[in-house]
Every structure is written in C-alpha cells, then in structure tokens.
User: Fold these one by one.
Assistant:
Number 1:
Amino acid sequence: MDLVNYLYLASILFALGATTVLLRRNAIVVFMGIELMLNATNLALVTFARMHGDITGQVLAFFVMVVAAAEVVVGLAIIVTIFRARRSASVDDVNLLKS
Amino acid sequence: MTMQTLSLAPWLVATPLIGAALLLLVGRRSDRWGHWLGVLASTATFVIGLVILLDMLAADPDQRVGVHTVASWIDVGPLQVDVGFQVDPLSMTFVMLITLVGSLIHLYSVAYMSHDRDRRRFFAYLNLFVAAMLLLVLADSYLLLFVGWEGVGLASFLLIGFWDHHLPNAVAGKKAFVMNRVGDMGLIAAMMLMLATFGGVDFSTVLGSAGAADQGTTTAIGLLLLLAACGKSAQLPLQAWLGDAMAGPTPVSALIHAATMVTAGVYLLVRSGPVLEAAPDAQLVIAVVGALTLLFGAVVGCAKDDIKKALAASTMSQIGYMMLAAGLGPVGYAFAIFHLVTHGFFKAGLFLGAGSVMHAMDDDVNMRRFGGLARLLPVTAITMGLGWLAILGVPPFSGFYSKDKIIEAAFVGEGWRPWVFGTVALLGAGITAYYMSRLFFMTFMGRRRWVTELAGGAGREGGSDGTPVRHPHESPWLMTLPMIVLAVGSVGLGFALNAGERFVHFLEPVTGHAEHHDPVLPIWLIITLTLTLVAAGLALAFVQYAMRPVPTTPPPAPAVVRAARVDLHQDDVNEAVVMLPGKVLTRSLVFADRTAVDAGWLGLAGGVGRFGTWLRGLQSGYVRQYAAMTLGGLGVIVLVIWLFSGQGAS
C-alpha cells in the first residue's frame, strides 16, 4: 500500500478540522475540530517517520499527544467556566476583549 | 623679576574672583557689608599689582618679561595649553590701569549705588568684571585670553542690564552681548587659523613664528583679530552697542565702557604686534577702521544731547585714535597704549563727573536741561573741567602728550597714507575739542535751564516751558574723592609718563624698539595745527553754547546733524544690512523646515498611524476570525516556501 494515501487522509482530516473550527460557533465542536487537526498532523508525522525510516516524527507525535491532552484539560475548564458565567458556549459571544 | 613676585600673578585674578564669588554666594546676608568687601577685593588686587610692578621696575629692562605657569589646562596631542600668566610691562600697565581706576570706581559706587537695594550684586559683578579683565590681560595664550574676553563680555552684559526691570536696559544689555559675539567669532576663527598654521595658541609660539608664516595667512589672522577687536572696542562696523550700553549705571559706563573693557581690542592688537607686522594689508585695514571710527564717533558726539551718550561717542572716537596708532606698526603701539592709559584716567573722570551731575539732577541726562551748574557743583565742575582740558589735548594736560604723539605718528610714512591718516587725526582733534567743550559748556556754563521751587515760585511748578524743577547739590566725598584722584591723573599722568619717553621705553620689551622716523610735516607745525584746531573747536562751542542761550528742545537742524542725533543711522544700517537678510534667511529656513523636513516626517508618522488604525479593525474579538487569519497566514507561508525554496530545490 502506498504511504502517500496516509498523507491524503491526513490532509482531508486536517481540512475537515479546520473547516469545523472556522464554521462552527459552539466551543465544544470547535474544540473537537482542533483535536481533529492535531490528530491529522500526528498521522502525517507518523507517515513521514515511516517514509524516511526515522523515528523523529513518531517522537514528535507523542509530544503532540501530551500537549493535546494538557490543552484539552485547560481548554475544557475554560469553556465550562465561560458557560457558567455567560450561559453560552458560542465562541462569538466571547468578544469582550476587543478595543 | 624674582620668582616670588611672579608667583603673585595668579592672585591678581583670584582676589576679585573670590570677592565676586563670596558676594554672590553669601547673598542677601552680606547686603550690609558686601560693598566694602568689593572695594577691599579691588584695592587688594591693586596692592598686589603694585608690588609686582615695583619689583619689575627694579629689574633690568631685559629681565622684565616673565611667564608664570600654574597648571596644564589642555593636553591633547599637538594642542598644549597651559594656565599661565604673562607678566611683562604691557600686561602690568593694564593691571595698574584696571585695578587703580577700578578701585576708585568701586569706591565711587559705594555712594552712587547707596539707594539701590541690589548694591551687593552690583559689586559682585564689578569684581567679576575686574577678575575677567585681569585674566584677559595676564593670559599667556589666546585661549586663556579668550576666557577673560568672554568673562568681560558677561560682566558687561550683567552690568548694562543691571536695572533690567526697565525693558530698554535689558535690551541694551542683549544688544551689547550679541554684537560682542560677532567679534568673538573673529577671535575663535583666528585661534583656529593659528592652531593650523603655528600649531599652538600661546603667545610665545604664535608671536615667535609669525614672521616666518605665509603672508596670506597672517593677513587673515590679522583681519580676524581686528574683527574681534572691533566687537570689544566698539569700532566700525560693530560700534552700535556702545551708545546703548549707557543704560547701565554710570560707574559701569566709567569702568567698562571708557577705561577698561573697550580697551581690550587695542590690547589684543598691540599684543599681536608681530602677527600684524607680518601682514601689512591687515595693518592698513586696522588704521582705516581706526580713522573712520575716530571721525564717526566725533561726528555723533557733536549732536548728542544725552551727556552719557556724548561721552560714549567720544570714547568710540578716542579708541579710534588708539586703533589708528595700533595700525601704524611698532611706531604706534606704545603711543596707542600711552593714550589708552591717559584716556582711561580722564574718561573715567569725565564719566564719574557725569554721574555726579546726574546724581544732582535727579538722574536726568539731557544736557539741554542742565546749564549753570558750575557754582552749585564746584568739585564736579573742576574735576570734569580738568578731564575736559585733558581730552582736548591742551598742554600740559595728559591728553596733549598722548594724542599729540598719535597725530605725529599718523603723519609718518610714505605715499598717501601719512596725509590721509594725519589729516583725519588732526580733524578729529578739532571736532573732539568742539563736542567736549559743548558738553562742558552746556552742563556747567550758560543760563540755568531748570528751576528750583523757590526761584520758580508758587503756581509755576516747572515744566510749563520745559524747565524742570531740580535741587542740585554736590555729591558726597565718597564720590568726589575718586573724581579728584582721576583729575590729578588727567593733569599729571601724561607729563610724568612722557618725561624722557619713559613710558615708551618701559613698553619696549613687548612692543619692540621702533626706529625713529620724521613725519612728513615738521613737528612744530603739527603741534601748532593741532592746537589751532583745538582752539577753534573750543571757541566755536563757547560762542554757541556758553554765550548764546541753549534751546531746551533740539532745534531744527541740517540733515547731517539730524543723522548724527540718531547715531548716523547705525541701527538702520545694521537692520537693513544684517538683520533683515538674516530674518529672511531664518524665515525661509523655518519655512523649508516646516514644508519639507517636518512635512516629510509628519507624513510618515501619519501614514503609520493610519495603517495602525486600519490594522486595529482586524482585532474584531471573534475567535473564528483570528483562526481564519492564522490559517491564511499559514497558507501564505507555505506558498512562499513552495515558491522560493521548494521550487528552486527541485
């Protein structure tokens, strides 16, 4: 099987994630889009590692997972706090910091 | 000269400087005794000077020049300047003139300024002036001289504008300061040229190697020194500040604008003698400037009704004589200094006398409202009378010896020069006689053009026909004593110094020995002509101002007199020639600055500001928009990498 197909899959997943982030208002869904993008990147990294016969990409994928896990914890905490304060999970309602 | 007395030289400058510093730093607490401290500092300086002078006179003539180096001042590569004091007959002559006349004027000021609440500050400035002037004449390099030169300018500025609560006085001080700056530029440029040509600015280097230098260079240095001298000595074309400088208190006019500061230019030129001798063209220009100023001052002096301004014009004219003599070369240096010394005495005496008259006449300076004061102010009238005879050059008063020598020296030479300079000097003597006699007669003789209340009677409080009410009284002894001493100097100094050409020989270690040349006219004829012209001027003034009544308002007069009343339009000329073009230049520069430079930078700043405002619009607060921009940015980066490196590598 051609390894390039994995890259096509990664690109499609990344595009899906990015579209989700850009188009959806619900913070939880946006969050899921981000996760999708991160995992698409991981897939690409692992594929590259396989293509080059080098484990650097795999190591990098582990780092991304760790950081993503931490990010999920912090991000969800923020979303929950904002929802409690403002009764809304829409990212468009959180625009108070603009000048 | 012994080392002990030579090492006293720094104290000549330090003593009055300490006096000034004390008076200024202690402040109002010294109001009660400050003026006496000022007198003490000045007198102590005179005593120190006298000690050095006596020691100098005891030494052989070739042992009379000494330099006392105190410290190294500037030590950068080729430029080595020491703080050194040049003690020689020329500088000691000035030291004696400055400290003696200065001390007398300090004493006079104690009484003259007794009603002024800032008398202490006045004495601080007087001491500062004496210190600066002494530094000027004792410096052993042009650079140190320049320090004193600027100090003198500063003291002059402070003293002219002493009563600065009255706006014209402050303006006069500023005018003097600014016009002096023009001359200072000349001295600075001259020092630059000296440094470039001779590699130093101390007298021994410059004067020692001036003879070997290129004549074009020495001419340039000579002309720049002349510019400096013109500024300080109020010579054409920088003469306009002197008349306005009379806004200062009268002792200032006597000390600074008659006896000492204005002589600094003559000192500079005589000191720079070897440079000028290597530049005949510069010498000619100096003589011409002196001759022109001599006539200019004399003409202005004839028309002035303000007693102090008439004396100021006379100062200008007399210093013109000195400049003329300094421009004649070694034959004239000693006579220039001789006239400077005698002039210092009689002019200071005349100014102090004028101050005494003003003191008696409620600070009025208009001679048209004086008259008949001789009986009421006998001491003032006699001392001023002696000064008047001295400046006229009536034998045997001191002006006769000094001025006559200059007139004789002006007649020495070849070609057209002796005839022109000699005639101008002769003519100047005649005009001097006229305007000084006019001043004396208008003040002390003739009908009284003022009234006392008693003589005026009730109902006529004066002023109805322009005659003011006055109560003239003789000045206190503190004022008359200095006048008497100066009058004695006006009478006897010329004879005493001239006997056996004593003074000329005394100065020879500095000015060099001048070969004796015969004038183009026999000496007896020159003296006769001079005295005839002086007598004619005196007689004319006597007829006009002592025998005939003097109108209390200036009568209509021909154009030349009207011009002389406004200083021959010197201010108009300065405005037209210098001020207006300067104004146009600065205005156009300001315009160019605003339209080109400022507009460019302001436009740039405005552009950045507008760009920032536009950029701010992107900060909408919508997270998704930010995410889109991040994604777009990523796309751009990928595109750029693909275009420039990815494609190039493949």
Number 2:
Amino acid sequence: MGLMKINKRGYQLLSAYWFVILAIIAGAIISGALLFYSNVADVRGSEADILSGKIIDCVIKGGIVNQEFVDGNFDILQECKINFEEGLPEFADEEQYYIQLKILNFDTGVEIRKQEIGRIDFEQKCLDQELKGKIEKTFPQCKRKSVYSIDSQGSKYLIKVLTAVRKTEKNV
Amino acid sequence: MYKILKGKKGVIGETLTWTVATVIIVVLCVLFILAAILIRGTKKFDFDIGINFHEGLVDKDISIAKSFSGFLMTENNYQDLETDIDLCLYEDFFNKVYKEDGKTFSWQLIKGGDSCPKDFSYKQGTFFDVSYKLNNKEIITLKREKDT
C-alpha cells in the first residue's frame, strides 16, 4: 500500500451524488407502486352478475323452476341466503341493491308475475344507461339475465332477472 | 481499492460517465412509472360464474346452462327421459330466449362439422358436451345440469 493522494472533495461530491441516485430510484419504485395500487377497481358489474347468477341457481334446479317461486310464495332473500346488509357506516342509511324478477309465459310473452326487492328507483337508472348505451360511473351498475325453465307440470316460463348494485363510494 | 485521479482529464472522464449513467437511470425510472400508469388501467375481473356440474366442471354462464337443462326437459316431455332429442331445434330456442340480451348462437365443431348434430340422443343420468359459438367468437361447451 503506497502513499495515495486522494481528492477528498471529489469523493464527498460522489457520495452526495449516490444519495441523489438512490433517492431517484426509490422515489420511482414507490411512485410506481402507489400509482398502480391506488387505482380503484370497479367490481359492481361483476357483483350484479354474481347476484343474478345466485338467484337463478336458487330458483331453478335441474331445469325445473320452484313452484313456490312461480306462485309468489318464495322469500328470495331467505331461501337464497342473500344478505343486503353492508355493515358499513356510509351505507347505513340507504339500500345499495335492487333485484327485479319477471316471470313470463314463454309461448305468449305475457307477464305472469313481477317481484321487486330493494331500491326500486334503480330500475330507471339502469334503463337510462341502456338507452344511452353508456355506463355512468356514478349510477348503479346493472345486469340483466334471461333464463328458460319449466315447472313440474310442464308449463314453460321465461324468467327475466335484473340486478343493480350502487356502492359508488367504494368503487369509483 | 482507490483510484487516484491525476489531472483534469481523468476527472472529466469520470463526470461524463456518471452524467450519462444518471440520464439512463432517470429515463428508466420514468419508463417504470409510465408502465405502472398504463398497466393500472387494464385491471379486469373475470369471474367464472356458473354452476357446478359433475366432476367439478363449471359453465361460465349459469343462465345458459339452466335454459339448456330446461330445453332438454321440454323436448323430453319431462316424463319420457329416453326419447331422442332434435338438437337442431336448440338454435331457434336459444335465439328466442336470448334475443333481447343480444346473444347470438351458431353451432361449432360438433363431430367435425358446423351444423347441429342429427344423431344425438339423450338418456337420463348421462352427461354430454355440446360446443357452440356465442356472439360469433366465444366457444362454450354446454353440459347438462346435474339432476338435484
């Protein structure tokens, strides 16, 4: 190890430079992660889809519709084990869901029965979005499904399900 | 371990190296942030919503699976479960049920062809697959719903 003449001021500058580089890289990683994970994912459409699927699966078994459901003696929420309670203070005062079920005669198209659960004003908001052909983020997100079924007597039905989920504050 | 810098040329060379390195690092960081911004917009959720069939198989669209079961029950007249079913009727049936939902149906790749299967028969307790094309793109396999 010989005697070395070192420019101390230069090394001080280089140390400061390394801290700056370190800060830039750390800043980029943190901002990238924050930008990616701070994006809110809107799952209301999928939630409405799951809700309608659950109802259809509950009222139709093996291609045969529940007769009590057709007759109107069927408590959807209880029988299908659906709970609309959100348990969040921001949703304590108003319901966030809507279910509409229409039972039609498959051959004639005549409506036999209509049942609504939850916020009935959501239907108009679903219609508005469908007419405009555009999803309004501040509106409830809706899902329509049709399903064919027969009862134990062989009568044919077309069952139309409309579900809507609001929960705008959590998803937008 | 230490590099002894002698004269200004050496210092200029080192400074230039790190200046270029800094530019590259900053550009890479900016690209990383831009990529994060672009990717975050593509977050999508695709749930395989459906009904559990035999052997744990799942159909994506529960309403189609249920309607198909209802169709089979209707064509069998519900009582005679060993009658042959004309699946060619299914296309008209499907289009009637799902006309308002905007779903269209066409046969696809059944026994090497693209038309409805003529020699199809259904017996109680048997399961089968029928492939068809939905909205002219997504190929879905129909399975008879398990009797419950």
